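ENTRY TYPE: paired fold submission
RECORD: A
CONTENT: sequence, then structure tokens
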Amino acid sequence: MSSVRLLAPLQFAMSYYLRRIDWPLVFLAALGCYLLPSLLIGTISMSLFKESGEAAPGASTLLLLLFVLPPIFSGWFTARLAKELPKLQVGVVGLLGTGYSLIVRSNTFGTALALAALMFALVCLGAFVRLRWRRSDDA
């Protein structure tokens, strides 16, 4: 009975924050910045690499940009459109994107974990840039 009393404030805090998250915005950011770019990356990579396995000129740069830009944009987009608690919503989008990247990429566990940490850091970078600009916009 005492453990239930100890967990009650935690349950209240979790439900309070979960109700304040703008879920349509979170899912729009996750869909637009993770699912669609991964389909785009697959399509472009199939067209850039020839049947012989050689890459077209500039293919590695384009694929790198397609890997780096979507997480940065998802953090910026979510922080830009969030009405309240933008850092929390960016964190949720980052966790969804990180989970998606762990599921989609079939690498070794260590490599997948490093890529997931990199993607979460890029989401936070995008949010940091937007929230830094927001201060100068509001002043």
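RECORD: B
CONTENT: sequence, then structure tokens
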Amino acid sequence: MLLRIQVGEAINARAIFSATLLVLFLSLDYFATDFFSRGNVAAEGNAISALWWQLAGPLRHLDIIIEIGGAFVLAFIIRQRSEFLTLWWLNGLAFGHLMGFLSWLPYGILDLFYRITPNDQVLTIALSGTGVLLGLPLAFLQIALARRKLNLGRRAL
């Protein structure tokens, strides 16, 4: 019974929105990586992803499920302390994967990152860090809108 109550409190529209962004952007990033690398694991700049691809081989697509599951478990654990941190965690991961997806597009969207980073590992850190920074204002906005809605609801009573 206690677990059921905690799960119900942890899942709300804000968390569902952030989780949906994560699933969408992670999937885009993953399939863009798979498509644009044409199976060449050396084209992947993220060392952990490249190692996973080598180890998992044709089962590498399970990474989407594993990563989403791990992110959701950690989000649930973080939610026990702070909804804001949970939203920042999910949004940061989502935007990090959006940056990863954009890095594969051939339109020069991220040329700035390519100019300032000396190698793929630094580029991976720069893209992930940018994702975390982009997730922060969205988490603030989500919390601010939730508080505003709560205040409007109190006024109606």
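NOTES ON RECORD B: Helices lie at 2-10, 13-37, 47-56, 62-79, 83-104, 111-116, 120-156. Residues 1-8 have pLDDT under 50 and may be disordered.
STATUS: closed
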